[in-house]
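[audit] Reproducing an earlier prediction to check determinism. Same input, same settings, fresh worker. If the tokens differ from the archived copy the diff job will pick it up downstream; this log only records the rerun itself.
[audit] input (146 residues):
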Amino acid sequence: MLNPFSEIKLRPSLAERRSFGWSLIIGFPSVATALLLTSGLWSGNWRMAPFLWLGGCGMAGGALFVAFPSVARPFYLLWHFLACCIGIVVGNALLAAFYLLIVTPIGAVMRASGRQSVSKSFDRQTRSYWVDVEKTEDVRDYYRQF
């Protein structure tokens, strides 16, 4: 998707706004629990207050949006705008990492070994680079082209 912002519904329905509220009710405590476990296991510090605040605020906001979906529209739009911004950055970073970590080393190894997957040399003696392909008479081959 080239423009993720075109996927944002500027006028979400009541059901979509309620669904957004439910995702906050379920999502924020889940993320808070995961962060608490990660923080506790990583540093040995099991302070629960910030994670309780995070989960509690998310649940309270979600409950407010489920009960009063008309209030949820600006938060819905802001949430999806931020998600699109993060998605663009992460998507481009992953694409660059894939290219630099996978494609570039394969190309470097192929170039170092002298192997060419595509013939790029120019031959002045050749009249044409056309390669004839044998014709098939069997109609079934049209359904199994590769």
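[audit] rerun output stored. Observation attached for the diff report: The chain is about 60% helix and 0% strand.
[audit] end
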